[in-house]
Write a structure and sequence with these properties.
Elements (H helix, E strand, L loop, with lengths): L5 H22 L6 H8 L3 H7 L3 H25 L5 H18 L4 H12 L3 H27 L9 H21 L5 H12 L8
Length: 203
Amino acid sequence: MPRVPESHLAARRDQILDAATARFAANGFQATGMADVIAASGLSAGAVYRYFRSKDELIAAIVERVVGEAAGRFEVLLHDDVPDPATAVATAVQMVADVAARGPVDLTRVAVQAWGESLRNPPVHAAVERAYRTMRGFFVEVARRNQAAGRLPADADPVHLGATMLSSVIGFLVQRLLLGDVDPAAYGRAVQVAWGGAPVPGA
């Protein structure tokens, strides 16, 4: 039997993840079962279960997919420069806004649902914890580089500085979904004022 190309396998996996993301965003994790995902994907049950044995695996894969994209953007940001905290937070906020607007599914809705699911579901908690530790790690690196450059106090704890930066991004995400009146550009300018960094590009 001819070997299935990796590109075909990756496309099929993405097809399933796209279907699952759409159903989770619309109805939540609890109200969405594997049968719903299978129906939305247009594939057979056997095809879906070949890639994902359970809903928990699907949720974990979606979380890691989104964080992987964000991690790639942060790696580019940190590759040649030392962004000040305000720029790092504003960049992350714009990433959130971009993901939300990319459509047809607002992935930030899935992210918030994943937080709640992680509190009762250990496998999902493990995936969410890995994701947010990765994101916090980028902000910790921003803090360390700014300390080395003399922009932040050398005796401050970089882990907690990074946690504070991440909290600013999470705060934007939550307020955007719950209140709907938070503009990413204006939020970025406010972060610049709060952190006292360099002017935010494009602001």
